[in-house]
Each structure stands twice: as structure tokens, then as C-alpha cells.
## 1
Amino acid sequence: MHSLKNDRYLRALLRQPVDVTPVWMMRQAGRYLPEYKATRAQAGDFMSLCKNAELACEVTLQPLRRYDLDAAILFSDILTIPDAMGLGLYFEQGEGPKFSNPITCMADIQNLPAPDPEQELQYVMNAVRTIRKNLQGEVPLIGFSGSPWTLATYMIEGGSSKAFTKIKKMAFSEPQALHLLLDKLADSVILYLNAQIAAGAQSVMVFDTWGGVLSPRDYQDFSLQYMHKIVDGLTRENEGRKIPVTLFTKNAGMWLESIAATGCDGVGLDWTIDIDNAKARVGDKVALQGNMDPSMLYASPERIEQEVKHILAGFGEGPGHVFNLGHGIHLDVPPENAKVFVDAVHKYSAQYHKG
């Protein structure tokens, strides 16, 4: 078994005792850090940064040099799978991701290839291997993927969307086409995450950014069912350790019980639900990750500490909490405020782990 100097993140996800509540931040390697901007400029553009294992490793490690974080997360993008399927991913300045060949019909879906993680997506596995080696057992490495529903939204809308009319049109007028796409994506995500685990990821997370735009029944049919399939297909042990899996749907506080019933280890929470409410409902089944509003990082150090204390008190005693933001850190947050946040979690959480 490979020894980890700090495994409290993995222990917390498995609801095992820890000394303090572990903390990491979604998008912790990113645009709010000046050193990230410098490395990205060196790479030329965002996808070139993702595809260069050494530079992807460098930006993964940058936040760990600044902050006492309890996990590293692979530097990559959720849209690597659709890109590898030939949809032509590109980024417009200030506009986010776009696809030059979006999915429009059943024939497009039938013709989609299943990308081989060690061929078309080998650059991701190379990044995982490089990061894992360079971490030298300091903290665990998290691998990740987008959820089938969230990937499908970008693939059908052709980019970001506000109303999701194209994918919902397919969902309600040609459901068999959308289900075929989601099933293909679930199969690809299983291969992709299992390859990340084989390459050295010690925990994996599925990001379902857009599941919350669905009705409760449609969420079950078009999003959760496919995440459940992924959970069932994942390698759950490697190198003599359990590989915890976390599911995160934004705006899904009302569906926590269904998410917890998939067999995942952790459920990510955004800030629109109180963590005490979430713990009362599912805390004996899964660990909870979250859930400070990322905009709180604009506040004064005193206000940030107050919020951290409030969330820690809401979760209360015992293991099973991974502290995080309720979504990714904003790009104009002062880096020193992120330090206040991380330090406050460790400082004020020890009292809840005396047991």
C-alpha cells in the first residue's frame, strides 16, 4: 500500500475518524492565481495547458504551495470526452467552450466513437501519472469527469446555455436518441475514470453542473440514472485502498436521498441547502462535501471565518465532512482570502473531532 502523509480527505469520504475536517476548493488551480496565469501564458492556451503533462502538473501543484489543502485535483476540463469524440472543442475569448460539430440528430449519436482513454485521451492519463509522481504522497489526487447529462448539454447546445432548449427538445421529442447518447457517454466516463484510477487517481468525482435544470422525474431519467450506472462501473479499490466516489449536482438539495442511494461515497452540496439539513437526511449513508458560497471569499477575513464556523457547527461532530465551496472559486477572488478560508477550516474544526 502506498503511504500517504495526509489521507484525511479519503478518510472523511469513507466516514472514518479524522483529526480535523479536510478542505479543498473546486477550481483551486485556476485563474485567481497569478502563477496560474503565467503558466497558461507559457502553454499558449487552455487546451494546450491541459495537454502538456508537465504544465498541467505544475498548475495542479501551485495551490498546494500556497495553501494547506488536503487534496490535489487533476487539472483538466470536463469536455475532454466530447472533444475526443470529434466534436471540435474550442474556446472563444470570454465566451467559454464551444463545439464546431454539435450533435443534432440520432445519426450523429450513432456515429460517435468511444474514445480510448490511453489513445485519444492519453494526455489526461499522462497528466495523472505526472501529478501523482510529483505529489510524493503528500496528499491524495482527485480525478474527475463531467456527468453524461452535463456533457450532453454542451454537445447538443454547442456550448454554454441558459435555457437548454435544444437538449430538452431532444429529451421530450426524441428521448430514445438522447438516452442512446447518455448511455454512450456513461460507458465512456466509466472507461475514462477507471483509466484515471489505474494511472494513480485516489478518488474520483463526477460533476453534474446542469442536472439542476431538470424536473425531479427528468433528473432521475436523464441524469441520475446514468451517474448510478457510472458508480456501478467504477473500480472501487486500487493499491490496497478504497477509491471513494463523489457525485455533485448543482441545485440538487431536494434530491439528496436519491443521489445517496446510488452507492456513491460522497455527495457534493452547493450553498442553497443548509448542511445540517443535508446531514439529517443522508449523513448516515454518505459523506458530504461543501458548501460555502464561493462569493463569501470576497468578504473580510472575519466574515469568512464566521461562515466557516457556521458551516462546521451545522455539520457538527463526527467524520463524514469534506469542506469545500458550493461551486468553483471565482476568478477575481484575492488569493489571500482563500488562505483565510483554508486555515479557518483546520483551526475551527478540531473541536468536532475529539471523539
## 2
Amino acid sequence: MNPIVIDVETTISNKGNAYDQTNKLCYIGVKGQDFVCAFPIEYNNEPFGDKLDFVQQLVDDSGFIVGFNLKFDLAWLKKYSIDISNVRVWDCQLVHFILTGQQNPYPSLDGVASHYQLGSKLDAVATYWEQGIDTPDIPQEILEEYLVQDLELTWKVFEKQVEEVKKQPKAMQNLIGLHNSDLLVLLEMEYNGLYFDETRCNELAQGLREELVEIDRELYQYHSCPHFNPASTNHISLLLYGGRIVFRERQVIGAYKTGPRKGEVKHGWVDVPWEFPRLVKPLKGSELAKEGFYSTDEPTLRQLKGAKKVIELLLRRAELEKRVGTYYEGLVNLRKEMNWVEGELHGQLNQVVARTGRLSSSKPNLQNIDSKIKEVFRSKYV
């Protein structure tokens, strides 16, 4: 083996997400057995093409990249056209997660270094970030010192892990190798992203919003309460199981008798009680911690006897709200929030989260897409 450790420093929008179009790569750090290099990329106004060429040469000469949360760093290398198609990888975060029985999601470099009694990261750069100071505005000597320390710590962790893995049964060694190989596949999936039709999302969301308005209008017939919020589980509980609630309402309470506003109408906040009749009997054991309120989740609603029409409306409303809020509007809003290219999603595929060792997905959860919205997804090759 001729391993090299790679770590990058980037601008901080969305925690340095590589697919955020406002972010840029500021530094690449590389450490080998007997060298450490810190290459400024878009940290200043100097040309950086030759530095990328040098990093590419180091990658080609090594063929074995080590890192911590390595998928993050590799995404940035790919974004800046560094070819990693023929490398093997070792993610110290992933290996630690497996070796410790998948007990602690997202282990940190500090935590793993402490586990091996190797020291800790430097705090200075994190302090700048916490104050909202972006990476290009951090003094160069402080940023480079921080980067080099991360490289050194990762190298030391890697050495300890190699020793530990060698003592493991062959099956465990193979499992660790397989998960590291999978990392490259997951990187490719995240990098390419998932294409979806934002225009169609907005059209479908508008149609369902209109249906939600109609559902709320139908529900109003069963309560007639102007302050009723169909998105509130407390209000749904009151509608189904009955009970009393007090609303704060702004009302006319008289007129000003003196001063410059004499004779004008005076408003104030008044407590208005509202009594909801019981429509259905709550299920035994469905009581909530808040006295007088009961569960309104979907499994509970499907077991209730009576008030069939109301329950159908509530179930339909919950379904539409999820489809609109989580998917049609939710995906578009997430894409905008993350500053991704329009019509692309770059969800995370996580290897260091689930205690069972299975793959998980987040932001958005690409493993749990409602089948009814799949029409908005399309192939990039069409």
C-alpha cells in the first residue's frame, strides 16, 4: 500500500455541501508517509490549475485514498475534475462505526482520535465558522495549521485501525472492505443526483392545495369553530373526542373615553371558550400526556368506530398534506434551500447512521418516496 490521506476545506453554505452552487473548494490537504501538503485552491485569487494537477499526480501515484467522512472530500475532488475512478478508499469514520458495533452514528474525528488516545483537533477554525466567518476570510496560517492537524490525526487513526482490522476475523475484514468499496458507488449516486420536474411538482401541489381547502370546508360543518386548525393534533382530538378549549380573540371591548382617541372603538383580547361535542369514543390506551386529549395518528383513526365521514376526511387530509409538504413543495423548497441546480436532488446516502448497518438516506429520504409522486421523477438521459 502507498496510502495518502486527503482532507478538504470549503466555504460553509449548507455545511460545505459540494452540490451547493454557491460553495467553492478553498484548500486540499494531502499527507503521505513522509510528507504533508496544503494546496490553496479558491482561497485567494492565485491560479490553482497546477495545484490540481499536482493533487491528481499524488492520487495516481498512490491509488489508495484515506480520509474521515471521506465521501464529502471525494465529492469535492470530483467537482474539481480530479479523477478518482481507479482508487481504493478507506474511510476512518466508516471503519470506526463498524468496529464499534455501529453504536454511535456519525462518529467525529475528535471522538475517534480520543478513542485511540491520539490528541484532538484544533479549535481555532471552528470558532471562526461559528461566528459566521467564511473559510476564505480565515487567516491562511490558521487555516493551514487546522488542515494539517486534521491530516495528521486521520493518518494516526488510520494506522491504529489497520492494526485493529488485521486482528479481526476474515469475514469482518471483508465486510469493512466491502463497505469502503460501496462508498464509491454511493458517491457516484449522490454526485449524479436524481432529476425531477419542478414545474410538474408546482402544478400538482396547487391542485392538492385546492382539494385541501375543500376538505377543510367540509370539516367545518362538523365544528363551526372559526379558530379551528386542522393541522393541529390537539384540535383534531377535540373534534373527534370532544372537550373544551379557550381561544384568545380580539374583540371590541368599548370605546376610548378620554385622550386623542376619544370616541374611537377600543379593542382588546378576550378569552372565548369553545365546547366540542364528542363524535367518537376514544380507544382504550390512546390517552396522551396532556389531560383530555387522545391520539389522532393514522393507525388510531383507522380503528375508530363511528364518524366515518369525518375520519375519511382527516385521513385524506393527512395524506395530501404529506404529499404536498414533504414532496411536491418540500422537494422544491429543499432544492432551493440547498442551492442545487434546478431540477436536481443530491440526497445523502448514509453508511454511519443505522445501528443495524443498513443504508439510510436523508435530505431527502430517497429510500421512501411515495409511489404516487413518482411521475415527477425523470431520467437524465431523456
## 3
Amino acid sequence: MQFFLDFEKPLVELRKKINELRDFSTDNVDFSGELKKLEKKAEKLRNDIFSNLTRWQRTQLARHQARPYTLDYIENIFTDFFEVHGDRNFRDDPALVCGFARFDGQPCAVIGHQKGRDTKAKVYRNFGMPNPEGYRKALRVMQMAEQFGLPIFTFVDTPGAFPGIGAEERGQAEAIARNLREMADLKVPVIVTVTGEGGSGGALAIAVGNKVMMMEYSVYAVISPEGCAAILWSDGALGPQAAEALKLTATDIDELGCVIDDIIPEPEGGAHNDPVAAAASVKEYLQKQLAELQKLSPEELVEQRYQKYRAMSRIEE
């Protein structure tokens, strides 16, 4: 079933009319003039819509249920993917996909959040919210990658770590904190891409990288807009106002000057409109970043990562 956001619907309806007119065109009936006018109108409408998106609308795009997830990027960017399951302690966590693959023929590790599109898949993937065992599985794969000198690619797309009682009992905070510490000291290149939602510690636990990139319509914040609104105003329905205050879009984060290294452009209307083209764009940026990092020694990689995160501050006198 196709899903469209409210602000997408006028453009979708116009595109539907264009397609219908094309279907009615024959050798005897020429609608080329009308089609050109409608195409021009559609282009203007698209520009009007996507050049004036609010932060809340960008958040909705980041959460679009047709947006590519980690497994989609793995399919279109990597080859020979072999998934690793379990943390060798409690169980496997389907909310985090971890494993090894080849990137342009080079062995690497791949880690990323995975959401579901239908109800069954969403429940199975826990809506992309990992438990502690997910982060421990990710750390297990990262340590294996370091042992064999493999670059690590992570894909971030989660509203946050799962806040359930069981997760807390099994050490959610400790698992996240341990990942932050261990990732800071990895002696291999770590490249992070925020593909959808970058939510709080649930995102950071796999996002301590030498290079951090955000897709054009992704968001990155310490808390979701609804969670922020619930804390500040005791009303999660005020998420749109909270989104404006959080300044969580890729453009907002880039303006800070030290948090991310690149914004990856998306296809017209967002990555969900052309997942293959979106993956091709991501791959191009991954190639560029990896080429830069492979020039550094293991010690230089650790120092570069350290200095990157030390620089994430502003001092006013």
C-alpha cells in the first residue's frame, strides 16, 4: 500500500493526472502540449513544497514508512553480506542489523538500525528501537572488524533505544555507554550515515565515527519532538513546535560546523521516491570518505576521532 504525507498529496494527485493523460495518448490523440504544461506545473509545485518544508515536515519525511532502511542500503551498496546474530549473552536483537560484507570488493563491517513497514515487521524489529543486546551485538561486530582491520559503516535510523523495563534490567544505559567508549578507541575507519531518525543515545551508540553524514531529509537530536513536547509542555501533540525549537534537520546540524561532515542529497521528493538512486548517492559519499580515512594510520584514526568530538562545543565569554 502506498503511503503519502499530507504535504505530498497535491503533488501526488498532479502526477496521477499526468500519468492518466499519458495512458490516454495515442497516435491519433496527441496530449503533448497539455502534458508539458502539467509537467511544468508539477515541477513548480514540487519546488514550492520542498523548498519551504518546516522542521516537522522534514521529521515526517525522515520517518516515512517507504523510506529505505539499512537492509535496503546493504542490498544496493554492498555485496556478499553475511549477517551476524546474537550478543553471546542474552539473545539476538532484530532492531539492529550487523554483519560483514564487501564494499567495492573490500571486506568491511556493516551495522544499522532496521525498522519494519507492515505491522508484523514493525513488531519484529521493535520499531527500530534496540535493546541492550542489540548494542552488545554491534560492539561484538565492531571489535571483530578492528581485529581484522576492516572499515566499519553504520546506518542510523531510530527514534531511540527501547525504554522498556526489561531493557533497563539488562543494562540499557551501560550498553550504550560502553559502545561510546569502545567506538572512540577503534583503530579502523568508522563512517556513520544518518539515514532517517537519529534519536538520542539510541543513535549515538553506533554513531561515534571519524566521519558522520546526514541524508538531506534526515533528523538528528537528543530527543524526539514528541518526547521533548511531553517534557516541556506535558503534551506530546505539540511535537511540531518542539521540532522548531530542537533545530534537528540536516541543515540545522550542518550550521553548527562540527557535528557532521556532509549532507547527502536525496532524489526528488525524498529517498523513498527512488531508493536505488538514494543508495547510489550514499555510496558515492561513502567512497569519498573512506578514501580519505584510509590514508590515516590506526593511531591517527583514533586521534582524529578524539579531536572531532572534543571540538563539539561552543564557548562564550
## 4
Amino acid sequence: MKLKSEFLNEIKARGFIYQNVDIEDLDQILLKNKISGYIGFDITSDSLHVGSLIQLMLLHWLDFYGHQSIALVGGGTTLIGDPSGKDQTRKILSKNDIDKNINNIKKTFDRFINIKKNSLIINNYDWLSKLNYIDFLREFGSKITLNRMLTFESVKNRLDREQPLSILEFNYMLLQAYDYLHLNKNYNCILQMGGSDQWGNILSGVDLIRKINKKNAFGITSPLITNSDGTKMGKTADGAIWLNKDKISSLDFFQFWRNVNDKDVSRFLYLFTKLPLSEIGKLSMLKNQEINEAKKILAYEVTKIVRGKEEAEEALEITSNVFSSKIVDERLPNIFQNKSNLKNEKFSLLDAIEKLNLVKSRSEIKRLVKSNGVKVNDIIFNHSNFSLKEFSDLNEIKITIGKKKIGIIKIN
């Protein structure tokens, strides 16, 4: 499939395209005109996580090539809950909670699309809240068949596992299709993008536009991004890798990317950085120990996009100090503790790791100690009583969890 337009060529070369609706026709339009395209985002939390990063990058590249990117926040649809790719019904949030989440998330979009110039953040509550249910069913209910909806993977998987799928969630598909119709009519939006789990919803929107607005509409999905071992991208033992700084520090965010599997480095450079394709090609050739340089670049570039250049440079400097120069950097997470508490064993390793917020639970800390996953001053800690008594005469103690988490106890 040969594509000529700049936007489609860019995202194809970087591996963003998985499924599409009439992409050759879209390509011809993009050669002659600027278009408007959108991606919808659930607002179930006060921050997006790295699972949304591929969609944010798609919006970025659309905006970068002079088109209008619309980040559609689901203030209305989140009140219902998207069943796509989910094993069970989502918790229903209040409108107040959703509005707070939207306010927190808006600043993330500013890093990917130019709101001041051309692109938009729109809330679908603005129109969905005004719908009359009877009128909606009369006008649109007959246009999307239950037979078609039952063929969608997101629905089939839930039903095959005999897990409940409520009428509430079925309505979500209708409303998302209506979102596309509304954006097509009011913003001349002709492209919806999303993850592969949104394929059925995108097709429904395309069909609705063609039947109601009598216009052509297009769709593109991106592949489901998993790690090389098959695990879900962005999910760790400590939870999700959030995009907002108040949910996870820039240092921990940087370290997540710095420690990805070697097999994932090339793919992630293409998807999650703005580096030129030729430079990524060279970095992708690095093997063995040299691949660590590519990982540093990946971590720096992604952190720069998500958190800003200053945060990225600070995270790079801290990690270089700690791991390359063996310098205890004062900007690492740290706590003060009285020497007598260590000597009298009133403050243990468990207390220290918990207060430094390096690990979620004390049971997890114990598991890590047993598996040699904790170091104190660069020596594996294996004391069954978790005592720090022998370190009490030092000025500070460095605690390392695995390869990427470090905290400092300052003794006074």
C-alpha cells in the first residue's frame, strides 16, 4: 500500500496503522486539503497513562502536518462506560468527578497539539446531555443493527466469557457513533482514530455519517501495544505509569522507559518519540551493551514530550549521577531519621521503604527482600529482621529497589 500524503506516510512508517476504512481515498483528500480528525478519551481517572500515549502521538502528527486535531473528552460517555476491551462493567463516576478529571487532563493535551492555533479539546457532554432519548432512538436506533454490534470483538469476547454486558454499555456504542456524526456535521471532521479495540465503534460512526449526513468518513486504528513478553503496556507491579507528574515523578517515569526490554526499544522509539526516522534507524541497529544508549535517548525523548525539557534533563542528570557516576543525588526521594531509632530498631527497612514510597505494601517489600531485590548501600539486603542497626553510624543510607528505584535515609 503506497501512500503519498505526509501525515499518512509518517504514521505508517512509525507503525501506527493497524486497520483502516478506505485509506487510499483519505490519502487523496489529504494531498489536496487540510482535514479535521479526532480521538476520544475516557475520563475515568484524573490522569491519562502511557496506554493513551499512542493516541496522543497520533493527534500530534495530525496537528504537526497542519490538520486540525480534536481531542474529544468523554464527559458524557464516561457517565456510561465503554465496554470495549473490558472484562467487566466499569464503575460509574459522578459528573462532578468527571469534570475534575477533565480539568486535570487538559494540560496533557497541550503538550501534543496546538490548542492556541488550530486544534481543539471538546467535551461530548455538551451535546449528549441535550439529547432527547425518544427522538434519538427514532432517528438513529434503526441505523445501527444489533446483528452488526454482536459481531464486534469487544462484544463477542464479553459474551463468550459469559460476562454481563448491560444495555447501558450497549448504548455507549450508539453514543460514540453519534459523537462522530456530530463532529462531522459541526466541525467537518472526516477521520476518527483510536485503538484496535475501538474498531467496531469507529465503523458504526462511519456508517452513521454515510447514512445520515450522506458524506464520506474514514477510520484508522492503531495496534494494541504490549511489551515483548505480551504484558499490557504501561502496567507494572506498582500500578499504571501515569502521564501527570502528581501521580508519578518524572524520575520514575524516565526510569520506566530506561528499563524497557531490549526488544521493545526500536518499536517504542518509532511510536513514542519525534526523532527523525533516519536517526531511529541507526539507534535500532545498536545491540548488547550499546543498546543502553538507545534506552537513555528513548527515556529522555518521551519524558521531554510528556513532562517538558527541564524535567527530562533533570531525570537524565539524576540517573547519570546515581548509576554511572555512583553519586548520591540530593534530588532522589529522601527522608530524615533519628540515629537512636535505627540503633534501637524502632525504624526498620520496611518502615524506610514505606516512607520513601518506593513500594506499595510491606508484604511486597518482604517478597523483594527474599528474592534479593533490595540493596542497602549497593549490597544485597538479606536480614530477616529487617534491621538497619548496623548502618546507624553513617550519615546516610541508600536503598535500591530492583534496577530503577532509589531512596535516601538521612541520619541525624
